[in-house]
Amino acid sequence: MVIANMNQKGGTGKTATTVNIGGILANSGKRVLLVDADPQGSMSVCLNVDTGGMSDVIMEGEPMTNIITNVRERLDLAPTSIQLAGVDLGLLDAYNREYRLRDALAPVKANYDYILIDSPPSLAMMTVNCLAACDQVLIAMSCDFQALMSVQLLYQSILTMKQRYNQSLGIMGLIRTRYDGRTSHAKAVSDKAAELYSDYFPVFETIVRERTAIKDAAAARQLIIEYQPNGDAAQEYKALTKEIFGNGA
After folding, report:
1. DSSP 65
2. Rounded to two decimals, what is the model's pTM?
3. Is 80 exceeded by the pLDDT of residue 37?
4. Which of 85, 78, 84, 80 is nearest to 107 (CA)?
5. Can you tell me the distance from the alpha carbon of 65 to that of 54, in angstroms, rounded to the nearest whole number?
């Protein structure tokens, strides 16, 4: 299964959620490929991989197998760099421009139980590629008002992309992240998200709170289950992974 984690707004905890869910799935025995499709390359940095390659895959047709790097047991990464930012301009008049990622993943899909894509925080050509390539979308929403509003825009974009490029596309659900329990604002936004969107797609009960350990783990180039395996953040991500994937986790 190919799953894209996305939000058109940045700073929603999308990358941390993708990399840590991927690590937990791999730790549970699943074969996982993480695809860094965000030109910021944050997931590649988190996993201490400083050589990109996704731009060559998308622009030049480089085989995905040539760039995939093993980063943990049963956990592989297709890394990227800032060069991926040139995709939108480079693919302006290119043949098959919406399906470059889908076609690149096709030869390796059978090697993995899950392929998790960290998508760009925009609705540009790379995001279109992510939506055309994936089976399901996870929406990561930080618990603030701007992120809440961005979900509605993303939902409409997904419906449009489904109609144009990927008729089998589905929404796996909404993940509430960066929840600051000290503020009434976070609770109000979290509750409003469940009220507004639960009729359209699942809103997962597990909420990932704003925790320094998540940032510290990324800075240490570690997964949260490595950095602080018994901490609250690791337990929340484990519960979230179990809720999303059930027995598949």
Report:
1. G
2. 0.92
3. yes
4. 78
5. 11
Q: Give the E-state strand segments of the chain in sequence order.
A: 2-6, 32-36, 69-72, 75-78, 114-118, 136-142, 170-179, 203-209
Question: What is the tens place of the pLDDT at every residue in 113-150?
Answer: 999 999 988 778 888 999 999 999 999 999 988 888 88
Tell me if residue 185 falls in helix, strand or coil: helix
pLDDT in tens, 170-204: 999 999 999 988 889 999 999 999 999 999 999 99
DSSP 146-181: HHHHHHHHHHHHHHHHHHHT-TT-EEEEEEEEEE-T
Distance CA 151, CA 142 (A): 10
Task: Give the angle 154-156-161 at the CA atoms, nearest 5°.
Answer: 90
d(CA 134, CA 104): 12
Q: What's the CATH fold of domain 2-244?
A: Rossmann fold (3.40.50)
Non-local CB neighbours of 221 within 8 Å, separated by 6+ positions: 45, 46, 47, 48
Q: Are strands 69-72 and 2-6 parallel, antiparallel or unpaired?
A: unpaired
Domain assignments of the chain as residue spans, ordered by start? 2-244
Rounded to whole angstroms, how far apart are CA atoms 112 and 63? 16
